[in-house]
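Researcher: Can you fold this with zinc ion in place?
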Amino acid sequence: MIKHHPNESLLEQFVEGSLPASISVAIAAHVELCPCCQKKTQALEEAKASQQFSDAAPLALDADMIQLMESIALTDDVDEVHDYIQPTFSYQGRDVQLPRAIANIDRTKFSGVGKVSRARLLLEDGELRSSLLEIEAEGEIPEHTHTGFEITLLLDGDFSDESGEYVPGDFIWQDGRHNHSPRTKSGCLCFTVVSSALHFNKGLSKLLNPIGNLIY
Amino acid sequence: MIGQQQSVDCNVKSGTRKAVQDTPSQALSDALVKVATSRDRKAFAYLFEYFAPKIKRFGVKQFGNEAQAMELVQDTMTSVWRKAHLYHHDKGAATTWIYTVMRNASFDALRKMKSNKEEHISEDIWPIIQDSQTDDEGFKDHLQTAQIQKYINKLPPAQRDIVKGVYFQEMSQEQLAEHLNIPVGTVKSRLRLALQKLRAELGDQA
Ligand SMILES: [Zn+2]
């Protein structure tokens, strides 16, 4: 069962559309996997909607508004919406279905160091970078801390760190106060959002730089 | 942004929602359905009068200027006119649906301001049609063959009626429910069962 969810204020900002795109993608993917957060976001959307749209008194439309209204309804055309077919994603001999928000964004090919490889999502978003991260069985990411934050959404397989074990759908938010060294027994696939380069222990930084660059 | 953003539980608060008496919910929902089914311009004018000034007010708060607020009104109300057929009144209030359309338009506009790129990533983050049975859609294309017809005819009558209604008479699940005088939930579960059986029968061919 999923144990780690985005907290209340994060979900609220998500529903308002006020979070950066990469974080919104991470939360949308969690929500797709988590029935409980689905209910919560629906309830939040209802609450926001009645906040914005509850006063009944229609204001009189000015000339600009009336012109706009008429121009919109000029044609009878409708937008065709194509059926969405969820593509299958294969890694390490396993077939999985990626959450829609992740699957629909273009990404680079996978490239890696050792047991860790990543594909970057082509999503321009300031300092935030998002990726699909694949770790082979018995692989790990060396202990590191962050100056910013790191979101990890486990999509498939197993994954654990100092705080415990995670299941697919778990939404893990790490910031500068934590240091952790995630590892996997039988291999896993994650979605990650990272806000700045990772910091490994100084003495080892040279050695570990490639993986640091890989993950950010 | 920094801080504990993750939570180890997920409690849905219930009973806190109070009905907003001022909102003419039924009338708004009816108008949206009329726009969808008969391109009713009077119904659209009613929706426009109700929502456009409120969307503009939201836009001014969001973007800090009138021109962009008007663009938000245009983007949102254009989607309402052109996508009304995607609204399902059994899934929620018209106000909620229009809120999500506005939120999506506003999200794309804010991104456009930041990255100067025209894109509609909001559709990937918050799909306007949320169909959990999306993987059944690919299946639909294969349904025309005689062999499948044969399997469909072997289904229990209750399930067969649903499959035929949805795939051959192209009725919506809501229409079918009304037609057969059963709850929509029953239509959905019978359809699910029927598709499971068909998949099992067809094995790898599907
Ligand atoms: Zn959740």
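Model: Folded with zinc ion in place. The pocket of zinc ion is lined by residues A 2, 5, 30, 34, 36-37; B 10 (CB under 6 Å).
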